[in-house]
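Async update (no meeting this week)

Hi team, since we skipped the sync, here's where things stand on the single-chain job. The sequence we agreed to prioritize is pasted below, unchanged from the tracker. I ran it this morning and attached the output directly underneath so nobody has to dig for it. Comments welcome in thread, and please keep replies under the output.
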Amino acid sequence: MGDPTTRKSRPIGSMIGIAFGLLWALIGIQGIQADLRLKADIVAAGLAVVFFVLAWVSRSNSQVGAMFRRRAYLLAVAFEIAAIAAASILLPRFGLGAYFLEAVGVIVGLHFIGLWKATGLSRFLIVAAGMCIVSIAAAIVPETSVSHVTDLRFAALGFGNALVLWLISVGSQRSAH
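Output:
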């Protein structure tokens, strides 16, 4: 029996990461051959459900839930929203509208620096670096198709960011025990 003052809570942060990982996977699926998308949607949804269940049953002692009330977190989210809004206006004006999702990936990645500041958890710096690297790399990839991938840039962006979020979300639960 553990310390009664240490309450294990549901891993809200991991569950949010899993949900956003699913959204990125759905973006990646748009880059694959149309006749494979339904199967890929099912696989992505199935993976997310498995990750949710794993997160739900593996309660942790993490204080990530407290970050939602911290100033650094609130500022990170406010700047993230403002930066995405600015990108949606500015990128098309400069003929770069095709790179909006890549810019969102970088912006979302950078917002994890604020989460690190709010919690002191280094895994948020790993997410920040991972999402920025994936998103910048995807922006550099030419709009080409290979095998069953019709838009390599979209597939790399979506699947890469999903992988970053899923790995850190599932990994943080495993390391919390």
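Quick observations from my side:
The CA atoms of residues 116 and 122 lie 6 Å apart.
The mean pLDDT is 87.
Reply here if anything looks off.
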